[in-house]
Amino acid sequence: MSVVEVNGLSKIYDGGLEALKSVSLRIEKGEILALLGPNGAGKTTLISALCGISSPTSGTAQVGGYDIATQYRKARCLIGLVPQEVALEPFERVINTVRFSRGLFGKARDDALIERILRQLSLWDKRHSRINALSGGMKRRVLIAKALCHEPRVLFLDEPTAGVDVELRRDMWQIVRGLKADGVTIILTTHYIEEAEAIADRVGIINKGELLLVEEKNALMARMGRKTLRIDLQAPVSAVPTTLVGYDLELSPDGTSLSYHYDTSGNGTGITRLLQALAQEGLGLRDIQTTQSSLEEIFVSLVAEGTG
Amino acid sequence: MNFQAVKAIYIYEMKRFFRTLMESLLSPVISTSLYFVVFGAAIGSRIDQVEGVAYGAFIVPGLIMLSVMTQSISNASFAIYFPKFIGTIFELLSAPVNAFEIVLGYVGAAATKSFVIGVIILITARFFVEIHIQHPLAMLAFLTLTCLSFSLFGFIIGIWARDFQQLQLIPLLIITPMVFLGGSFYSISMLPPAWQSISLFNPVVYLISGFRWSFFGTADVAIGLSLLAILGFTALCLSLIWLIFKTGYRIKS
Ligand SMILES: Nc1ncnc2c1ncn2[C@@H]1O[C@H](COP(=O)(O)OP(=O)(O)OP(=O)(O)O)[C@@H](O)[C@H]1O
Ligand SMILES: [Mg+2]
Hints:
The complex is a heterodimer of chains A (308) and B (253). Chain A is 34% helix and 27% strand. Chain A is an alpha/beta fold and 308 residues long. In chain A, the strands form three sheets. Chain A has a six-stranded mixed β-sheet with strand order 6-7-8-3-9-10, sandwiched between helices. Chain A has a four-stranded antiparallel β-sheet with strand order 2-1-4-5. A four-stranded antiparallel β-sheet of chain A has the order 12-13-11-14. In chain A, helix 3 runs parallel beside helix 5 (136-148). Chain B has one domain (3-247). In chain B, a hairpin with a 2-residue loop joins strand 1 and strand 2. The longest helix of chain B has 32 residues, at 55-86. Bound molecules: adenosine-5'-triphosphate and magnesium ion. Adenosine-5'-triphosphate (ATP) binds at residues 13, 15, 17, 19, 37, 39-45, 84 of chain A.
């Protein structure tokens, strides 16, 4: 049985905006699912509905086999949430707010556990600091500590690494992997493709309230892993030389550069052969550069696919 | 029942109270003393006795009620408005708690604070006048019920308010006048007959009258009516809160 089951979940906000359009989704125990989607896609809306922050307009969902509406107590005990917006009481001290969260979720005080979590997040030295004396990244860590302190089995991370430095990002990934090893299921949203690449098992793409696809990361990465090699020529050419036609090159309108698309997931990229062929043609190279198709482009192509 | 959650909210809120202990206690003590100076000394020198009670002592129950009512409302409304304002309400909404537990935690803490303030005022008053409480148990019951019902009412205002202006609006426009016109500093019987009848529509009159009865054994209205008024008000607030959580009014989108 899946640990999270979403069946036809829809959300229409008061203004009439349809932020979720009958989303159905299954998430297996212990997996890491990355939800990707442009701003306003509905990622936060989906998470809020599952966590009880907003009520879905229609549809149902279960967490750990418990219905989020009728058995909300049991369902929510299993859920930890790190929200997108940093919301913390400014004058409270770190340790108090973390203890508060644990109590709120019905768990008895456990100082050893809280110490472990705070140390893991490098917050232990700051435990007696007031929240408003912390930096933005540290506040985000406090939010994570609050979400973890009641030992959730399903963790929602809504853009946990937005505005976070490289080090904390790596720490975060480490923590996420550790939680996964303990059998915790993790759903995270992100705008960084390398983040999804680094930690996710599956990737879901959501746009305009619709879940376009949920796919194994490796399969998706293969599709996303298209790269382009741009070759600037020393002298412009009027057409792609006939010996190079097999490479499917694109000539720029002014004839000064060639673009070659290749796949990093394949066995060979064909770059070596192409460069040799160029040399044989006697074409002098001025510069070469490679670009990876960005998440934005992938969205565009997927959305175009989805609607077209 | 998630007792841990109730305890967590209660302790968290009480900690806020203790963090600002000086401000929390100093202002009621100072304002009470001022009332004594102004009303007790200035007016008391002209009014000798009200219903056989020295004027200085006569105003004590009204003074306590005045502070307890306004403090309950401001404490409870702020306690729930603040998380809404800064966004930390998400945690309450996502926690395995029901409306009853949330209310118990927040309103319990707010009521405790105003109870403490009420007692402090009583102690302060004893420095100025001699007070003998005829019905201590009834006094405690009235005090507790007032703290509770006005904290409930404050909680409702806190949920209803969309900004800080609205948060102040009802206390300022409705509660303060009602309390001042509710016989805090005078007996209703001192008013002209027409105003006496109008006063009977002010629910605060019943609360202050009942509370004063527990001190001196004299009342403007029958003690049973006072009890009914406070119980009715508590019930009204409870049903409003029940409705708010049932519909998610101004908490959930
Ligand atoms: N409380 C609300 N009332 C009305 N509309 C809302 C509300 N919250 C979100 N929306 C709208 O719903 C849509 C989805 O928003 P949501 O926050 O779920 O997007 P998101 O995928 O999380 O975006 P981002 O990547 O920017 O965080 C947006 O068009 C947004 O404007
Ligand atoms: Mg979002």
